[in-house]
């Protein structure tokens, strides 16, 4: 009983789910961006019908109110998420949505589930990210190159803040809070380090997934080579550009489009 209680506490630290729906037919697991997004995605629960339960993963650094230790590497992060949610994934269908850093982690978790357990999402929704085998061919994309070029020395912190402000999505009030600002800078440094440990070389004729994949991007964000997702699934791939920059999904009209489209895709999956 104590082991079960500790496992529950561990899951509560890792997962946010304010709108619990034990009778839902499907779970939508959301993977946020660095330094935010957990509460945003957790609130998506009220935008879906009773047939879908929405969970948001608290990635290290994604939620300043829950200071999870930063992961050693992508493998450690994937293992932690999998051990917390494997039972849920085994008992009913699930879909993944990941934005930016979260898109790469959602891919890594999906790949691990498929290769080790024979499980895969009914749909993989990717936002603000490109196919990882393409990413590594060109060193993750222009934005990540800019991140990689930043030093981890303290005197480079202002460059990181300028980079964050250029992306948008972070309130000026938050950036004026010294503790929040330090936490955000540390999160970006640590998650950039973690992302460097993601290694996926696509072998010829190797197609890891059979689920449909949908990619969303902001029309004013840097261009992502999203076509590479075609090579990773036998299912259909779709691409949508919505008005806005890297954090286009924070715009209420875009959020409505996203959640309605995701709900429709899950419904079409035959649940």
From TrEMBL:
Keywords, in A-Z order: Fatty acid biosynthesis, Fatty acid metabolism, Hydrolase, Lipid biosynthesis, Lipid metabolism
Gene Ontology biological-process annotations: medium-chain fatty acid biosynthetic process
One annotated GO molecular function: fatty acyl-[ACP] hydrolase activity
Taxonomic placement: Eukaryota, Metazoa, Chordata, Craniata, Vertebrata
Residue ranges occupied by any Thioesterase domain in the UniProt entry: 27-259
Cited Pfam families: Thioesterase
Enzyme category, top tier: hydrolase
Organism: Bucorvus abyssinicus (Northern ground-hornbill)
Signal peptide boundaries: none
Catalysed transformations (reactions): (9Z)-octadecenoyl-[ACP] + H2O = (9Z)-octadecenoate + holo-[ACP] + H(+)
UniProt keyword annotation of Hydrolase present: yes
Keyword Cell membrane part of the UniProt annotation: no
Protein name: S-acyl fatty acid synthase thioesterase, medium chain
Family: Belongs to the thioesterase family.
EC number(s) stated in the UniProt entry for this protein: 3.1.2.14
